[in-house]
Amino acid sequence: xxxxxxxxxxxxxxxxxxxxxxxxxxxxxxxxxxxxxxxxxxxxxxxxxxxxxxxxxxxxxxxxxxxxxxxxxxxxxxxxxxxxxxxxxxxxxxxxxxxxxxxxxxxxxxxxxxxxxxxxxxxxxxxxxxxxxxxxxxxxxxxxxxxxxxxxxxxxxx
Length: 158
Description:
Number of domains: 2
Strand order of the largest sheet: 1-2-4-3
Helix content: 55-70%
Shape: flat
Number of helices: 5
Radius of gyration: 24 Å
C-alpha cells in the first residue's frame, strides 16, 4: 500500500518498491545490509517505506550492476562518492568565502575523479575482452578462407 507524507511525497512499501524496480524484496534488504541503500523510513509496524529518492538510488545501483557490470564493492564506492557530492551540494552556501567554496569544489572534483577512474577501469576491461573476441573472429575467418574455400558458409558475420 502506497503512503504519503505531509509534503505529499509518495512512499512505497518494500513489495511495491521491489515491483517498481524489478528487484526482489530480499535484494533490497541485502542492499540495505551492505550499505548500498540507507535504512529506509519505517512505519509504526516496522514496515520499510521507500521514498522517491530511494527508488532513484535503487535504479542507479541497478544500472551500475546490470549495464556496467560493477561488483557490489564498486557500486558502494560509486554511491559513496555520489553521497559526498550530494552532501557538498546540500551544504553549499552562496555567502561562503572563496576559500570555503574552493575546498568544497576540490572535494567534489576528487570524488568525481574517483568515479571516472572506476568507469575507465571497467571500460578498459571490456575493450580488452572485445579485442580478444575480435581476434578470435579474425582467426576463424582466416582459417575458413584458407581451408574451407569449397564449404558453404553456415553463418553470417554480424
